[in-house]
Amino acid sequence: MHHFHLLKAARVKKETNDSVNIGFEIPQNLRHEFAFKQGQYLNVRFVFGDEDLRRSYSIVNAPSEGNTELEILVKHLDGGKVSTFLNNELKEGDQVEVSAPMGHFYTHYHPSNEKTYIGLAAGSGISPVLSNLKEALYQEPKSNAYLFFSNKSINDIIFKKEIDELAAKFGGRLKIIYLLSREKHSEDELFEGRISAEKLSQLFGRFPEIPVQESTYFICGPSEMIKDISGYLKNDKKVPSLQIMYEYYAAPDDDENAEMSDEFKAIPNIESMVTLIIDDDEYSFHLNSKKKSILDQALHDKLPVPFACKGGVCCTCKAQVMEGEVFMEKNFALTEDEVERGFVLTCQCHPTTNVVMLNYDV
Ligand code: FES
Question: Rounded mean pLDDT of 280-302?
């Protein structure tokens, strides 16, 4: 289980007009718990009135940088209470509730590797991609990296200064290609627009030295971009799935008014007794299979369940099925192996047997 700790926002720096870079100081006694891998994320928690709001933000730094702060980037979203507060109100020295790093958006590096890593990021999707590319370059002196990074305009390019400095520091091992969708910054049309399968195919043509099939890819952006690019890499370029890592930066196709899927409509309409194991304690409640998700019912009953995105993206609400069966609506976070081992995202789960037991402590 992931508990929240109060951390000091040691650095709060406006990065672009609509984003802020926050560095949390990790005190000595929490260094072990907050040890992280490149590409992981933190959950932050705010209680505004009677609302308990949680959000996930990717870590920007790389472990090899040896920073004692954990840095995140928060893009302001219209109507987003947490992102508005963090962009407009948070001051250096303020305390924020933060839980330990989580997530699987990374690969393992080794100093003897001679690989090529390709980062494909849109807007604030840069954070976990940059963390991974930095770690690769620090840990693997013989590896190279490319970053294809799309933004609306030059002024919207998040971490531009840091990225340009990294490119200079790694002396040709890191190549940066900025794409702009609403501003012309080059005579060359290749550098206009967004990242798409078509654009990537053109970029591969321009950089023929890239070993497309052997490279490892880190993709972070909106769901259409991820689907388009990962499909192209897998199907057209025959890149093995294990070399394509992606992270959604919002719940894909998230729409509270979205129609029930046909699969959800088809589950039996039953009353179930759901038991949750949380920190060695057991909690039980009745739930109709067609009503709330298991997580929503648990939150309604004020049970101490972990959650953040509620959209099947962040994996914070993961639990293992110990008894019975559930239907999981969406899954953008668990691996096939985890699903086979009975792990589920409780924010997406509905019971399909009369008795269900889930364990959050695994
Ligand atoms: S709360 Fe994020 S996947 Fe369930």
Answer: 95
